[in-house]
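Kindly inspect what follows.
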Amino acid sequence: MLILMFSDRNYQKWGFLANYSITECPFSCNGHGVCTNNSCVCDIDYTGESCEHKWCPLNCSGHGLCIQSGDHSQWGCKCSPGYAGYACDLAMEGEEGKMNWLTISPSVESFLDRFDHSAGFVKSSECVYVFGGNSQNSVLDDFLKFCFAKSKWEVVRKIEPWPSARYDHKMIVYKESLFVFGGVLSDGSHSDELWVYDTVSGNWSFLEFNNVSKPPGLSGHSMTLVEDVIYIIGGKADNGQYSSEIYSINASSPLSWNTEKLSGGRTSNRLLHGHSAVYHPETSSIIIYGGIAARSARYTTLSHKIFTFNVVNKFWTEIEYMGPASSHIPLQRAQHTALILGNYMIIYGGNVHIHSKEEKCYDEGIFLYHLGCHQFVNHSLVHQGTSYSKWCIQCISLFITVGTKTKFYKSLKRPVWILLES
């Protein structure tokens, strides 16, 4: 057993009291099996390393057939058409089960747990693909596939050529292909490779470039698809230096990289790592949130700032949203996820690194940013049917041409929008 305590120079801790117990099998098989030679032999209705999962939870929620005979790899719930998940409780259409977390798949033993991997969802096949990552003990190069029709994980068979092991890289989906760029390799160096996986043929392809606009090896960058064009923003290179460049490549004919020539914004505001970047078609802009921001050669800080990059006029600007400090406004963070759903940018999780009033490294919160009002809103009110769109229509719009920032202020009775841009 190894116990590691880390304390940085910002605060001191005086140790801890650890209580532990040793059993022949993990969690004594949770009372659902027999411990034999330090391994659990589970009862017929249970599975998992410690017999922690039922084969057919909730009797497949009434939306599937429980299979517990024949090929052991096929045991579990076989869901009816229109349903998926471990317990067949995920309706693929409609609002059934909304406002609830659902277990899509229990933990499995066929591959290692990981972080800093990349993932993409191919809509046509309704499959999620996961490549690489870090298991804490090793850097991974395995390729995983989860299709909702089967509700089971598969490990994709390795066929050369194949990308080397890496973590903190990025993946985007373009039609039936997966594009993977960058990452930290097993030797600690940063990759500048761009790989493409064809989900139809099941083959990887390595794309080679010789033009000077090719991005350096990066990790922690963002990778965003805008129609047929892939944009790379930020990231960190081998020497720890943060990148302020924005690179692009056409996914339909990936022949050469381009370095975007920006017409506005401060270079220092683009020195980001571990941020999110999502495309908002209505404004032709990539919206960048959070991340680790470089403030000087030796100083970085977590960010809660929002920037936009307009892909048409190549303008970078900061949005200064304002509002009361409350639970529905996220703290600064990095390594979170973001997506656009309807008129909202949804932020989930991330590293918040709080060590003042409480000890909190990672956050489990979900936050909604309204793209019309440019405010974080209370998602409980959204779920109750509150129309923020109607509220925003009442806003008074005021546009002033000064500087490079977009500011949104709230008056006593109703909000006032002020757009500041050069």
